[in-house]
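Q: What would this chain look like folded?
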Amino acid sequence: MPTSSYLRSGRIGITMRMVDAEGYNEPRDALAQDWGAFMGQVLPEALWMPVPNMGKDIIRYFSDWNLDGLILSGGNDLGSEVLRDLTEEALLQHALSRSLPVLGVCRGLQLLVKFYGGQLHSCDQSLHVAQRHLVIGEDDYPIAEQRRATFEVNSFHQFGLNKPAIPEPLCCWAYSEDGGVEALGIPETKVAATMWHPERERPVSRLDRTLVRWVFGWNS
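A: My prediction, written as structure tokens:
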């Protein structure tokens, strides 16, 4: 669907990581408090809510709440929490089939790659785990001032992929100095993902704010 046909997304669901609470034998869903502050700064016009890990039952929940946008948050390596994998795969399929805007963050980018049949590999931890490094914007990057520009991002991921390994229809938007994909999207859609965590930046990056607002149709 052409970008021009997208409407603003005003009700956004954010997926949650799964954690074990110390002293309790009960898996729990959790969302970093960073997200509340981040959404309040970058998209104050929209409503948002965390969505629980429910497997395929999440689609009815997502629809009942009339959510029209999706953020696939970070945390939990793919394959480490089966229920979360099932939940997010179902949500991604639902969103794509209805041309809803999707923003993937770290794990979310990796999920998109896996969804389209791509393969991830282990990254150089000295560059990508709890580090900051430079990335280079491609000509397709949706933020005009970052095309062919170099900018700094945070990095907290153990797995990634290089540009030649990107499966169609995904397109590389930014890459790191070692050739790793740092941002990608699907042309002619509002589907985008970054390996860095925009919600963890202090202060919030103006460029991340612009990207989030572009994804969900708030271009002002």
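The CA atoms of residues 118 and 167 lie 5 Å apart.
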